[in-house]
């Protein structure tokens, strides 16, 4: 029986990728590093420090900053990103998400959040949907970032369900890999997520019927 659905935040509940991009770009430019939104796709679903290391490597500056300097750079990026969150409203929830959250709740299935963003609680409150979630995991509760399965395993533990009783929903390759490694069924939102058990083009396609049909089809395969 399906007992929980666990969502990623950025790119699934709302799209703050562009806000991350603008914040990282401004910090990177001060270091003499330039990158575009295509490169920014590589930063989806990974932690703040891992993102900084990839940017430094991209700019040929890996190893040129001390740990203390890296922490300061990551903090500067976060300050600029947090300031930009003021632009988020209930209208910033991606299409179909409000409805599917209500449908999952009506079916008495638990709802979790697994986001590496330390700002996840602030974002959920800004969107006006924080009460929809039974348990939320952010980077402060884990040691290993995606694609390690820890964040999804922690969410399952917090919801008191076994991983094989849950579906995870992600928009990033690292996130889908984490869901699969946790032993959950995976739903990928967007292109190039061929390792997801179910791939959807957008959140508009994400419905309770879609999730239950996917669950039923996989359950049938297991029985056979």
UniProtKB/TrEMBL annotation:
The keyword Phosphoprotein applies. The gene is pgmB. Its cofactor is Mg(2+). It catalyses: beta-D-glucose 1-phosphate = beta-D-glucose 6-phosphate. Pfam families: Hydrolase. It is an enzyme of class 5 (isomerase). Keywords: Carbohydrate metabolism, Isomerase, Magnesium, Metal-binding, Phosphoprotein. Its EC number is 5.4.2.6. This is Beta-phosphoglucomutase. Belongs to the HAD-like hydrolase superfamily. CbbY/CbbZ/Gph/YieH family. The keyword Cytoplasm does not apply. It comes from the Bacteria. InterPro entries: B-phosphoglucomutase_hydrolase, Beta-PGM, Beta-PGM-like, HAD-like_sf, HAD-SF_hydro_IA, HAD_sf, PGP-like_dom2. GO terms for molecular function: beta-phosphoglucomutase activity.
């Amino acid at each position: 029986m399906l007992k929980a659905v666990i969502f990623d935040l950025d790119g699934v509940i709302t799209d703050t990728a562009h806000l991350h991009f603008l914040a990282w770009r401004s910090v990177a430019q001060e270091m003499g590093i330039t990158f575009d939104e295509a490169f920014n796709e590589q930063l989806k679903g990974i932690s703040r420090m891992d993102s900084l290391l990839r940017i430094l490597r991209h700019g040929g500056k890996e190893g040129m900053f001390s740990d203390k300097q890296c922490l300061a750079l990551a903090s500067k990026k976060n300050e600029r990103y947090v300031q930009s969150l003021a632009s988020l409203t209930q209208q910033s929830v991606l299409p179909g998400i409000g409805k599917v959250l209500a449908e999952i709740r009506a079916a008495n299935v638990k709802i979790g959040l697994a986001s590496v963003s330390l700002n996840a609680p602030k974002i959920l409150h800004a969107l006006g949907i924080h009460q929809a979630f039974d348990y939320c995991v952010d980077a402060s509760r884990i040691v290993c970032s995606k694609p390690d399965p820890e964040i999804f395993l922690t969410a399952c533990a917090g919801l008191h369900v076994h991983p094989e009783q849950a579906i995870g929903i992600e928009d990033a390759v690292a996130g889908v890999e984490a869901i699969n490694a946790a032993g959950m069924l995976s739903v990928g939102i967007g292109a190039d997520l061929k390792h997801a058990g179910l791939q959807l083009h957008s959140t508009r396609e994400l419905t309770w019927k879609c999730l239950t049909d996917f669950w039923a089809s996989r359950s049938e395969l297991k029985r056979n």
